[in-house]
Amino acid sequence: MTEEFNEQQMEAVQTHEGPLLVLAGAGSGKTRVITGKIAWNITRLYQDPASILAVTFTNKAADEMRSRLSMMIDPVQASRVVMKTFHSFGAWVLRRHGDVLGLNRDFVIYDEEDSLTLLHGLYPEYKRKDLVPFMKTISRLKDQCIGPGEAVESVTRDPRIEEMYRRYQGRLEEMGNADFGDLITRVIELFLKSPDVLNRFCQRFSTVLVDEYQDTNTAQFELLRMLCREGTHLCVVGDDDQSIYRFRGAEVRNILRFPDTFPGTRIVKLEENYRSTGRILAIASEVVKRNASRHEKQLWSRRPMGAKAQLVFAESHTAEAEFCASMIRRWGTGEGAAILYRTNAQSAAFETVLLRENIPYKIVGALRFFEREEIKDAMA
């Protein structure tokens, strides 16, 4: 097993006491380290798999991690590791002990549309679409672990929010249900109200691992802090340079201040990149080193430097799409080319140009622009 890891990865895998911060740069093998660490604890330290809690940010990531773990150790043992997202862990806890808060085991979890419908029912004088910003603010307040009746000024100065939040949460609890934010904040409430329940979980999980720690919000941090007491091996893996979800409530200070929050923290830096050429890493390093607050690290690779990068200034989104199409034509790669964009709305320009140039394409994770309901309606 040891030959599968470089020196820094092996250090992270074998550390099993106290708090551990693994600063994993892009392409440095962080998933391999997390799964390897779980496998090491089970096969070399003979730790009970059920005493290990691994937290990821998406169900897909959890499935991938469990799949990798099943190839490293006995699949039966791998299945006993508690591997969940923050929200699925919260739901798991509340379905077992939510009665302390008046929640039934079969409570309904509201998604964004359900939550908006509930708020609209309380404020029918508003148009549904006009309530979307208010609903997002309520979600942000929960991310920041700010409850109804508490100071909301750090998130919003809209005088209407306080009453809306109070009425919305009151109605939600009256119905015995919970939204996504509650899956974290109400677990915190449960642990504060019932120390016995908290002790039960603290005693069960002697090892807690968290992936993509740079994307945690204030409520998730507080939940983690409550779960991890002296004697718990807490290992968080992340990269402050990859923190891009502030607009969703992510708090990069969680990873920046981790050593201060958890005294005695050991820091391991994974700086060898297995994915990119040296030239790409050099460009990325020049960008991120200008960040005002960050953990110092320098990615490097054994791969060659590679071709120089091009810097292209496009006059418009159409010009950008035409440039991409010309590059695909020049490469002649067909299925080997990929275009990444930030929002689904940006696909329109690319699709228009690719159709005109007769270049076949496939949209991943969304509908083609001209197949969307509103576009069909407009065209009709």
Q: How many strands, which pairing sense, and closed or not: the largest β-sheet? A: 6 strands, parallel
**Percent helix:** 40-55%
End-to-end Cα distance, whole Å, is 61 Å
Low-confidence stretches: none
* Oligomeric organization of the protein chains: single chain
Spatial order of the strands in the main sheet?
Answer: 3-2-6-7-1-8
Extended strand count: 8
Map the helices and strands.
Elements: H1 7-14, E1 20-24, H2 30-43, E2 52-56, H3 59-72, H4 75-80, E3 82-85, H5 86-97, E4 109-110, H6 112-122, H7 132-143, H8 161-174, E5 178-179, H9 182-193, H10 195-204, E6 207-210, H11 218-227, E7 233-238, H12 253-256, H13 258-261, E8 266-270, H14 278-288, H15 317-331, H16 347-356, H17 373-379
Parallel strand pairs: 1-7, 1-8, 2-3, 2-6, 4-5, 6-7
Helix pairs in contact: 1-2, 2-3, 5-9, 9-10, 9-11, 15-16
Description of the structure:
The chain has helices at 7-14, 30-43, 59-72, 75-80, 86-97, 112-122, 132-143, 161-174, 182-193, 195-204, 218-227, 253-256, 258-261, 278-288, 317-331, 347-356, 373-379, and strands at residues 20-24, 52-56, 82-85, 109-110, 178-179, 207-210, 233-238, 266-270. With 380 residues, the chain is an alpha/beta fold. It has a six-stranded parallel beta sheet. α1 (7-14) packs across α2 and α15 crosses α16 (347-356). The longest helix has 15 residues, at 317-331. The model has no long low-confidence stretch (mean pLDDT 92).
Comma- or semicolon-separated keywords:
380 residues; alpha/beta; six-stranded parallel sheet
